[in-house]
Amino acid sequence: MALKLYYDLMSQPSRALYILLKATKCNFESNYVDLRKGEHYTEGFSKINRLQKVPVIDHNGLLLSESVAIINYLSREGVIPETLYPRDSRTRALVQEYLEWQHVGLRLHCAMYFRVKYLDPILLGRTPSEEQIKGYEERMVSALQLLETKWLGRGTDFIVGNNVTVADLWAACELEQPRMAGFDAKDKFPNIATWWTKVRQNFNPHYDEAHIILNKIVQKQQKASKL
């Protein structure tokens, strides 16, 4: 089985897929694509993914992008264990329910807050107004409130029952991004804080490994704010 992963650890779904493959002891070829250098726009990478995004896998010649499509495929191929992506129809449906919701329900709002407050000033020299930041933060907080009360806090340890699944890993990686912009969901949402710790524990040491760069940025931001 020849599996190649193209990724950048600054990408939320890239981190999730990287952690998943590491945690399941999958033998894969690691191919880092530096988004900050624009390597995803090169002619060579465009041949791998015409959409010029990460993550992407190459599995025995099959090129596949979009992380949810990738985990569905790898599950059918037996690469992802049933414990993390259940094959039972009803349980899998509940995992997929979350994965479908998170695109617009959580990812959009966390990513936009991160982009407007942290990324745009660095890449574009564009400083957002306080009003703009407030608007993006309010929408993100509303999304986090849904995660806190509708997906968590229902008497189970994880999003779907008492066993960790890919739904939890994908959600946790999304919540890491706003931390670089100074917002940590653990500080305001107790259900998220308890759950997030369990997810990290289940996927360590690979979870922390995948977030080394991100955590360094967070620490740098925290030190700067104290000056």
Q: Topology of this protein?
A:
Blueprint: E1 3-7, H1 12-23, E2 29-32, H2 43-48, E3 56-59, E4 62-65, H3 67-76, H4 89-123, H5 130-151, H6 166-176, H7 190-203, H8 206-210, H9 212-226
Parallel strand pairs: 1-2
Antiparallel strand pairs: 1-3, 3-4
Helix pairs in contact: 1-6, 4-5, 4-6
Summarize this structure briefly.
Helix 1 links the parallel strand 1 (3-7) and strand 2 (29-32).
Explain what you see:
The protein is an alpha+beta fold. The protein is 57% helix and 7% strand. The protein contains 9 helices and 4 strands. It has helices at 12-23, 43-48, 67-76, 89-123, 130-151, 166-176, 190-203, 206-210, 212-226, and strands at residues 3-7, 29-32, 56-59, 62-65. Strands 2-1-3-4 form a 4-stranded mixed β-sheet, covered by helices on one side. Helix 4 (89-123) packs antiparallel against helix 5 and helix 4 (89-123) packs parallel to helix 6 (166-176). The longest helix has 35 residues, at 89-123. The chain is globular, with a radius of gyration of 18 Å. The chain starts with a strand and ends with a helix. The model has no long low-confidence stretch (mean pLDDT 96).
Tell me the distance between the termini: 52 Å
Order of helices and strands: EHEHEEHHHHHHH
Mean pLDDT: 96
> How many extended strands?
4
Tally of alpha and pi helices = 9
Major sheet strand order? 2-1-3-4
- Portion of residues in beta strands equals 5-15%
Q: State Rg.
A: 18 Å
Fraction of residues in helix: 55-70%
- Indicate the structural class: alpha+beta
